[in-house]
Predict the structure of DNA helicase RecQ.
Amino acid sequence: DLDSSAALDDARQRLREVFGHDDFRGRQPDVLVRVLAGQSTLAVMPTGAGKSLTYQLPATMLHGTCVVISPLIALMHDQLRAARADGIRAATLTSADSDWRETMDAFRAGELDLLYVAPERASQPSFCDLLTAAPLALFAIDEAHCVSEWGHDFRPDYRQLRPLMDRFGDIPRLALTATADAHTRADILEQLGIPQDGLVVAGFDRPSIHYAIRHRDNPVRQLTTLMGEQPGPGIVYAPTRRKVEDLAAKLAAATGREVLPYHAGLDPHVRAENQARFVASEDMVMVATIAFGMGIDKPDVRFVAHASIPKSIEAYYQETGRAGRDGDPSLALMLWGAEDFARARMRLAEVPEDRQAGDRQRLDSLASLVETAGCRRAVLLRHFGEDPPGQCGNCDNCLDAPGVVDVTELARKFLSAAYRTGQSFGFGHLQKVLTGAEDDRVRQREHDRLSVFGIVDGEDAAMLRPVSRALQARGSLVATEHGGLALGGDAKDILKGDTPVMIVKPPKKERRSRRSRAG
Ligand code: ADP
Ligand code: ZN
């Protein structure tokens, strides 16, 4: 409308004068319009999309100070330097600062555009008093996923922000994060008191990256082939120090290329040296644990490979995002094995109870990406809340559609078992019921008396896991908070026989392997 386009024109003017940028990027305007109109907002955008600008710019336009809550002091000081370089009146209040008095005086006098504080400040009564005595424009909450136990980086201090901000109810809030799946996003909105329609998500697509995900049968051969097809620098992520060393040695021997290892167990000098060589090199391959990559600025990485599954879709996106920052074509290859998932599921039992549901959901989402017969990019972008076209034309499945099998009957049996057992049991229990396993828990619940008991056998039994995962991928089955599976989406249509279910054909050896016992 007229108001918002006028506000945006003003903002664009400022963008040029203060920041020296020609125009907005991606969905920055959508966020800015809301913020300038005083509407609380959650902006989910990938790293580098320009989130900081969406509060820094309003901070220079609105009356009063924008209070920025940010969890990392080092980061805060970087931002402080950058903001001051742009002529923005900014300050920090952290344990590392000695100029508290001046900062507080300036804040109270309305002489600050931006004030950066750590979240632990928020719980201190003195800080609330300080806010009362100063003109406020906006609360900006950086790394907002820290407020959610569903996120991967929960910080209890973030929970103190809502009560604090509620005392200044007419000051708008802007929460920012690069990593938030649907669940975490909903949680952030609730925890920070931001309305549902205040969500702005965008800019996750990396069109120059080709995504490919394959079953791992011979990683050294598969990675050697990749290195042949894709010259130029590359990163191979491996799960353990031992695997890093092993793969680096074997790939070097197999390809004759320079391949170096990188992990936290190496001598710091060696590590720094390997990293420096990688950054300077035009064809070196680094085999590394995920310790490698953070803060490395190398735009011409031509491939990122995963020798086993990453931790989550977020991690996959972030790690593969290190490829092709120069915009030239690059490749992301994931090699996965059933044992990766089995191990990850086993590890679920070891994480604190309150985090298990979130971790399980993250693993299921990753499994959906691995198992999909459809476009990988579409799954990725949908995960980040975007609404992509069904086909990208630049992933393995788009370019070479995999074989699919009709598992409609098995899917109906599975859904029926979930329904008849009360939609509160996980895969393991449903599998036992369907295959007629001798099991105390099954008997105690009298699930051996259900019509679905023992109706699946032989080869079909080994297909239950892929079927379950496919059903979760399409939302016909949804994981409950307690790890059970409940009917969702089009489950009723499948049960009625109105909707067929097709899945990617699992490799032959998988169809009769440990897979069915693994999880
Ligand atoms: P994020 O916080 O989303 O990771 P930053 O706010 O650090 O991203 O911005 C990343 C880079 O993009 C910064 O160097 C910033 O100056 C630049 N940038 C932000 N917005 C624009 C824009 N509209 N035009 C050009 N560059 C921009
Ligand atoms: Zn695709």
Notes: The first helix runs from residue 2 to 19. Residues 462 and 513 are 7 Å apart (CA to CA). The pocket of zinc ion (ligand 2) is lined by residues 375-377, 391-392, 395, 397-398 (CB under 6 Å). The radius of gyration is 26 Å.
